[in-house]
Amino acid sequence: MTTIDVYVAGRCSGNPGPSSIGWLIFQDIKELAKGALKLKGNYTNNVAIYEAIVNGLLEAQPYFEDGLILKVNSKVHVDQLTGRCCANGDLLAEYLERVKYFAGEMSGEIEYEEVPKDNRNIIRVKNLAGRHLGMKIIKPPKIKKIVEEPEWDGNW
């Protein structure tokens, strides 16, 4: 079974405010596609994330065969997409229905997964989106050394 991973993110400068979205599409460790768009108008972060989900699914269609895992840094969106909670408000409910429609049109299984905000691919996709708004680039967390290296005194 061939599964692709689709990482999506939405960013806002203010909430609501100017917004942009981004997506990264992978099969195993191979990057298949990436993209970002600036949205016209001012939107909330929730709307920007749904726009990212819709666009990520649309962009993933050419690569989609057996399965897709949509990865987003939003528990609320994952809970809405999996039916654990309802969308709040008419606009978000419309977006939820649009995503379900697109997902239903795709052959194969789609899973939704919440990923932590310090996930390297989520950071990459947030930076892709943020460039359209002139936002500060997010840096990945530094990897801490687990083992301290002994100081070398020059002797073997």
For this entry, give a set of tags.
alpha/beta, Nucleotidyltransferase, domain 5, 5 strands, 33% helix, globular
Summed up:
The chain is α/β, with parallel strands linked by helices and 156 residues long. It is built from 4 helices and 5 strands; from the N terminus they run βββαβααβα.
SSE inventory with pairings:
Blueprint: E1 3-12, E2 17-27, E3 30-43, H1 45-60, E4 67-72, H2 75-81, H3 90-105, E5 109-114, H4 120-131
Parallel strand pairs: 1-4, 4-5
Antiparallel strand pairs: 1-2, 2-3
Helix pairs in contact: 1-3
Give your account of this protein's structure:
- This protein has 156 residues and is of the alpha/beta class.
- The protein has one domain: Nucleotidyltransferase, domain 5 (2-Layer Sandwich), CATH 3.30.420.10.
- It has helices spanning 45-60, 75-81, 90-105, 120-131; strands at residues 3-12, 17-27, 30-43, 67-72, 109-114.
- Strands 3-2-1-4-5 form a 5-stranded mixed β-sheet, with helices on both faces.
- A hairpin with a 2-residue loop joins strand 2 and strand 3.
- The model has no long low-confidence stretch (mean pLDDT 87).
